[in-house]
Design a protein that fits this description.
- This protein is mostly helical.
- The protein has a domain of about 110 residues: Arc Repressor Mutant, subunit A (Orthogonal Bundle), CATH 1.10.10.10.
- The chain contains 7 helices and 2 strands, in the order H-H-H-E-E-H-H-H-H.
- A two-stranded antiparallel ribbon has the order 1-2.
- Helix 1 crosses helix 3, helix 1 packs across helix 4 and helix 2 packs across helix 3.
- It starts with a helix and ends in a 6-residue tail after the last helix.
Length: about 160
């Protein structure tokens, strides 16, 4: 499975926002400069997290994005699904019933074994991501990382981008 690059962007941006002090925000321009990303496209992607209730956004000179709830209540799966949806990346087209090797219909009454295994893998992947919150990610960062992130991210003036 290959996820779009914007998924990585939003996972990192949400993790960075989780490192801010309560009440602090970061603008799309600040996050874009922090990660060297295109600001207009990142702003559009961040809106997906706002629509999903994972981030809140404020406008104005001191506006920006922040987590809409505690980091412990936001999972990696929620972020991924906000961007990419929940549908399995595997789609069985029942080719076992086509071509020279087509199986007879009576042998295809049960779900294709490959489709079943792919569905199992998708469920396991989702379960794994659902079990990891942003707070869990923060707990695994190097000791000085949150302070460094806050210092560098908040030092970026939105007008510079």
């Amino acid at each position: 499975m290959k996820l779009p690059g914007s998924t990585e962007w939003l996972l990192h941006c949400a993790t960075s926002l989780a490192q801010l002090e309560p009440g602090e925000t970061a603008s799309a321009a600040q996050l874009a400069e922090y990660y060297d990303l295109p600001a207009p496209y990142l702003a559009k992607q961040l809106q997906a997290l706002v629509r999903s209730g994972l981030l809140s956004a404020t406008t104005g000179p001191r506006g920006g994005f922040r987590l809409a709830r505690a980091a412990s209540e936001i999972t990696l799966l929620q972020i991924v699904e906000a961007v990419d949806g929940a549908q399995s990346p595997y789609e069985c087209r029942e080719i076992r019933q086509q071509g020279r090797g087509a199986l007879p219909p009576e042998e295809c009454r049960r779900i294709c074994v490959l489709a079943a295994r792919m569905a199992d893998a998708h469920r396991a992947w989702r379960k794994s991501l659902a079990g990891v919150s942003l707070a869990d990610v923060l707990a695994e960062l190097p000791e000085g990382a949150p302070a460094r992130t806050r210092s560098l991210l908040t030092a970026i003036t939105p007008q510079r981008r």
